[in-house]
Task: structure prediction
Amino acid sequence: MAGTLVARARVTRRRKMSPSAFLQKYLGYLMLALVAYWMLTKFIKSPSQFFSAALDGLENGTLYALIALGYTLVYGIIELINFAHGDLFMLGTMMSALVLSKLGVDHSSLTGWLGLVFTLVVVMAACATLNVIIEFLAYRRLRRAPKLAPLITAVGVSFILQNIALHFHGSTPKQHPSALPAASFNIGSVQINQAFLVVIAVTAPLLLLMTFIVQRTRQGKAMRATAQDQDAARLMGVNVNRTISFTFALGGALAGAAGLMYEQTVGTTSYNLGQQLGLIAFTAAVLGGIGNLVGAVLGGLLIGLIQGLNDGLPLLGQLWSQSVVFTVLILLMVFKPEGILGKPTTEKV
Amino acid sequence: MSDVMTEAAGGLMLSIEDMHVYYGNIAAVKGLSLTVNHGEIVTLIGSNGAGKSTTLRTISGLLKPKKGSITFLGRPINGVAGHEIVGRGICQSPEGRRIFPRMTVEENLDLGAFLRKDKDGIASDKERVLTLFPRLQERIAQKAGTMSGGEQQMLAVGRALIGRPKLLLLDEPSMGLAPVLVDLIFDTIATIREQGTTILLVEQNALAALRIADRAYVLESGSLKLSGKASDLAKDPEVVNAYLGG
Ligand SMILES: Nc1ncnc2c1ncn2[C@@H]1O[C@H](COP(=O)(O)OP(=O)(O)OP(=O)(O)O)[C@@H](O)[C@H]1O
Ligand SMILES: [Mg+2]
Result:
């Protein structure tokens, strides 16, 4: 759906510019220039505050990136905007809380670290499995149906996952203890939380592994072939069903990892978390160019950064955080409808 | 082992019996029977919409026949998943080329060998394909989607060859090619057969197809109209009138 919207936007752009479009364009430049100017002045005034805000933003950004990858992987391979993906992440946060509380891990220690690693593995596997099951039950049959059918189904799955969460977790946000170290240290005058380092230490290797799998492995080759032409991939001997399952497993595992990291850094979770974060992560995927893996990561980091700077400096403050993010998205879409790294022909997987 | 069995059965490689294929309620192939023997070039000709591509897609497992049987090397393959049929030794260069446009020529060729594990064998087959189509060698690092139609066609045929099929299905390999390239592609098909690959060829260019084929089947509205030795059909007045523009 977004694909056609994007395409349409591009067509409009090609047409001869009307005076209002001209004005819009320069208004856009003006706003971007203002934002850049504002960032620069803040940076000059107080570099340490700037960096602290930026680091906070990047911490969220890496989580957005992990979730965005799930959207973009699935879109890349079957052109489905998997609306249930954010809710899978939400279930990931709850599973993390559950496993950690069963293990009795609630503070940082050696057993705490082991528990955390164990939980990471369990939650990634669980979310991967769940995502594979969702694809199998809900989307597979609709693969040759008109695009709107699986899209509506995805919305339905999203509600089902939320209801499951509502049933087991209740309707109010719940606080969970964190096993991450609360300590921080300073580099110069910039404060760095140890938790931030843990998030980076978990997400960065995952992102690299992901890229490696898609670019270098046989399975990755099968994914790219399937994304470009399913029947042709079959004629090469690629097991298309298994490849699509694998893609959902990858996306699910990343959502699970993001779930644990979120649960550990933020500490609360709620049944409708997936709607908020899912939408932002989806935006990140579109911002980066949907279907493009590196784009999803860039988009996630960029949105995190914008939010961090807006909240921490403050431009308009936390209350306006979402509006600022989407203003940037809209501006970017005006100039580059296909996203930061998206090719005009929507580069896939 | 199955090869030995079929050799004993008189060189029969592929046999289709009373095959019916539907798209929804619409019958595209109605009761087709045909055979391909080891080492042959068999061509399937017929006008637009006759069901030629449907037949090839069904052999490759992309479509399931509603009725009838397909036997390859003595084993039934109807209902077997498409990717497994490649493993049994059938590769196809499909209608409309269907190359992977955002991959390089080399990546496309490598995908042709997706199921193969023998690195040395793959390397030598790649060598062979690049010798058959020197143009592909020149464009090896180019994104396949940016190549000319003729170059893409060569890639599609080359990609199917690298799977080292026992049976190669070619769906209109000459489509959209300049006359010089048409000759080249037909010469190449003859060469491929000489190198030991059995070929089932679908063509609009019936004249050229009949020239290199051993046997031919003429399909009309999903049913068999005529079949026989290619050289005989090339002289058949009915065929000449309908398909050879005579
Ligand atoms: N995906 C499809 N859905 C519905 N009908 C189809 C589909 N593909 C083909 N057909 C129909 O099946 C019949 C046979 O088509 P097929 O592609 O096998 O013909 P063909 O002999 O290969 O023709 P051509 O020489 O034009 O390629 C045609 O009437 C066609 O309209
Ligand atoms: Mg055809």
Summary: The longest strand of chain A covers residues 184-187.
